[in-house]
Amino acid sequence: MKKSAFKVFGLFALATTLFFTSCNSDDDKGEDPNPGVEIDPNNFKGTFTGEGTDLILDPTKVYQLNGALQILNGATLTIPAGTKIEATGGTSAYIAIGQDAKIFVNGTANAPVVITNPAQTPGSWGGVVICGKAPINKGGGTAMSEVGDLPYGGSATNDSSGSIKYLRIEYSGANFTAEKEFNGLSLFGVGNGTTVQYVQVYHGTDDGFEWFGGTVNTSHLVSTGNEDDQFDWTEGWNGTNSNWYAKEGFGKGNRGIEADNLSGTNSAQPYSSPTISGLTLIGVPESGEPQGIKLREGTQAHLSNVVLANWDTGIDIQHDVTLSWIPNNLFIDGVKFINVATPSKGKNSAGETVDVSNAYTLDENAMGAGNGTNLPAWAQGWTNMAEL
Predict the structure, then answer these.
(1) Low-confidence residues in the chain, pLDDT < 50
(2) Which stretches of the chain are DSSP H helices?
(3) CA-closest candidate to residue 243, choices 330, 370, 362
(4) Which of 98, 217, 227, 348 is deepest in the core (most CB within 10 A)?
């Protein structure tokens, strides 16, 4: 189900002081990666702001994220391969990258960057939030996030918020109210100058990935065991994507994909219109809303090479504007259904049933993200697939 765009306790937006400690001389090994900035890994939180403010983490240390970490106004956060961050603190603990700031996650397949909870408790911290300056269709083209009251949106389609490679986000989704929870990775107006590749969100209590407008492209995403939707987009997101793999688990979950243009104004422009090639979505019988793909509220989409397994409904398309895009601007080219009770269904804005079988073609040879329902080779080794 759709939750509010940002999930956070606004008080932490007022945080402007970085918590520093003096480094013990025994810890000084060679050149300081953060000249002029001393960080206590046991108290990792605060606000970094301004050009030339560069926070570079040390992969030999474990960082305790117990509050809000905000990177703003020209500052950068660099996380080397193999770095581990342990997050606690509920809604007060999250990482937010503001407009004109950047994050560089430099993980590798053999040494991913991991942000986790040491008790392995879902919803024990917030998540990772990135705000860019690419177009959105909300609020006249710009809006404010609830996390730190950060602006997002604009006109810079090629805006860059940095690069993320081989990142694993675990046990995110802290619950502030019944309708406000973090996602694992939230991308607000993020531009296509940003790299997002080889990222997993594992066992969060809300959505795995969510896009709020923007133009960012992605590839090789894994969303597993998240308790709401595995992938979610809204507010006019346009991006080119490949190789998405999702699998529900732990007896919980809703949809594989929940996709909107804009609630209340389905014809708002720019329209949500992503392209995704190579998509595997696997459900569980206990899922609260067991739908593989739900397309509604005016979204467009161009999907190809799709595997949908273990859903009550494979494809659900709703609302007049959404239906009007079939088949030119909304189409699934080649889908394989496995153990899906109802392949497709549709409903117009008046609530009347509509046949949407012209929105897709069947392909029994479709392999989805790379290996049908099995974990693809590109996702092996750096991901957490425990208990799924």
Answers:
(1) 1-30
(2) 320-324
(3) 370
(4) 98
Do 65 and 88 contact (CB within 8 A), yes or no?
yes
The residue behind tokens 């619950």 is 175
Query: Residue 267's domain spans which residues?
Result: 263-388
For 200-248, the pLDDT digits (tens) are: 999 999 999 999 999 999 999 999 999 999 999 999 999 999 999 999 9
Q: What three-state secondary structure class fits 130?
A: strand
285 shares a domain with 158: no
Sign of CA dihedral 25, 31, 37, 39: negative
Task: Name, in order, each residue with C-beta under 8 angstroms of 60's C-beta and a sequence gap of 6 or more.
Answer: none
pLDDT in tens, 2-47: 444 433 333 333 333 333 333 333 344 445 555 556 688 999 999 9
Contact 266, 259 (CB under 8 A): no
Domain-embedded: residue 245: no
pLDDT of 286: 77
Pair 282, 208 in one domain: no
pLDDT on residue 325: 98
Distance between CA 102 and CA 98 in Å, rounded? 8
Query: CA dist 123 to 195, 227, 288, 388, Å?
Result: 26, 10, 18, 18
Task: Indicate the residue among 182, 215, 248 that finishes a domain.
Answer: 215
- Give the CA-trace dihedral at 191, 326, 289, 366, to 10 degrees: -80
| Token digits of residue 351 | 């609530």
Residue 189 lies in a domain: yes
Tokens found for residue 256: 């594989």
Per-residue tokens: 124: 């024990």
